[in-house]
Specification:
Strand content: 35-45%
Number of helices: 2
Structural class: mainly beta
Helix content: under 10%
Oligomer: single chain
Length: 155
């Protein structure tokens, strides 16, 4: 069996995480590109995997590093323009983080109508990182374990 037959094609996607206790780390993560038969991976897909470590290419110095997902507080990235078409609910809210940071924005999710409240969204166990779309155009993936409280701003 050829070694290349086991290789999974990946591309680099700029993502800037805040890692405890290091702080902000510039660089990129590896995601699968969009192919004819499937959609490409997004940063949320990679951060929400169950494996304990995330592979990153650090920018300065340029090197491959492995970061423990539990140590990632939040990660900033730019959306590629591909948005989920199955979003049925939006939640305007403010997140208060353990480090004192307050983040305001909107969460977008598809939930069954009987479980369509912000509380329900926050209790989904499948995703450790939730995607917060901020008013300034920045998107964050926020580690739920670093959120101390959530305030609904939906009036």
């Amino acid at each position: 069996m050829a070694l290349n037959s086991r290789k999974i094609e990946k591309i680099l996607r700029p993502v800037t995480p805040w890692v405890q206790p290091i702080g902000q780390v510039t660089g990129a993560i590896f995601v699968q590109p969009e192919m004819e038969s499937q959609c490409g991976e997004e940063p949320a897909d990679v951060l929400n995997q169950e494996t304990p470590f995330l592979v990153r290419q650090k920018q300065y110095p340029e090197e491959i590093r492995f970061y423990n997902r539990a140590a990632i507080v939040r990660a900033e990235f730019s959306e590629t323009g591909t948005h989920r078409s199955d979003v049925s609910h939006t939640y305007k809210c403010k997140l208060m983080m353990m480090d004192g940071t307050e983040m305001s924005g909107t969460l977008h999710e598809s939930l069954p109508s009987e479980y369509s409240h912000l509380y329900d969204y926050l209790h989904q166990k499948a995703e450790q990182f939730i995607k917060l779309h901020c008013d300034n155009g920045i998107t964050y993936l926020v580690n739920k374990t670093d959120v101390t409280q959530v305030v609904s701003e939906d009036g």
